[in-house]
Structures are given as structure tokens and as C-alpha cells.
Design a protein that fits this description.
Elements lengths: L1 E9 L5 H17 L3 E17 L2 E13 L4 H9 L4 E8 L2
Antiparallel strand pairs: 1-3, 1-4, 2-3
Amino acid sequence: MRKYELVCVIQPDLDEAAFNGVLDRVKGWVTESGGSVDKVDVWGKRKMAYQIRKHREGNYVLFNLSLTPATTAALEQNIRYTETVMRHMLTLVA
């Protein structure tokens, strides 16, 4: 298992229930693939450098994950097809 950081920018116009649903969905994908979510840090709504999908702001969330390298592609594919996640970045922590 390796340590990863996943930063997601989620649409700012979601209500609290929908926002928590997106977080639970990402956590579920990680646990289904045999990994674990070590920490979730919600940074809140922040202004972005440029407009994405007609939004100037986004809800930023940092996930600290433990995953096997083989399962990262499936996780990124699931996140890519989630419409409420505008951008994401998965990086290996050294």
C-alpha cells in the first residue's frame, strides 16, 4: 500500500447533502478497491484562478489515501465521470 493525496474541486452550488454524498462516493470507491481513507480535509469554498464550467469558485477537498498502485487508474476513472467533481489531482506522497 502506498500513500496518496487526492485533491478534488467540487461544484460550489451543491447543498450540504449532495456535497457529503460526493465525499461518501469517493470514500466508497477507495474502500471497495481495498484501500483506506486516512484523513479528509475540507478546505471549503475558494476562488479559482480561471473559470471552469461557468463557475468562479469551487469547494476544495483533500483526501489522504492508502491504495495499491494498480487501483489508482480505476479510482481516477470513476472520479472523471462524476459530473459534480470539476477537477481532481491524485499524487503519490513520498
